[in-house]
Amino acid sequence: MVLRVVIFLAVLSILLWGMFRAESPPELWQGAFYGISSDKFLHFFALLIFSVSAYFVFQLKQRWILWASLFIVAGVLEFLQNHFQPSRQFSYLDMAANVFGVFVVFMCCQLRALAAKWNR
């Protein structure tokens, strides 16, 4: 359990550093990859990894509290990023990428729980 908490705190630290640093991350590729910039992939994967680590740390009886919190954080982070770093621009697409990262983990966990229920 201690290792899970350490990993979660490391992921949280990296997420916050990436979201609130003064400059935007560099583009990993020129142009768009299937119409999606590398920035959107970074938002998606950051929240996906954060959601996975949160899922394994916060073993709540009522999982809806975890998921509601993660979805709220995914949306609010983009507002806060623009508020604390005026040099960064607010983007609904970044917010959507954040929420989609949480959504993918949510769906995987729901499918895992459903499969476990069927296999009893």
From TrEMBL:
Span-the-membrane segments of this chain are: 41-58, 65-84, 96-115
The alphabetized UniProt keywords are: Membrane, Transmembrane, Transmembrane helix
Protein name, per record: VanZ-like domain-containing protein
State if Membrane is listed as a keyword.
Answer: yes
> What is the source species?
Thiomicrorhabdus marina
Origin superkingdom? Bacteria
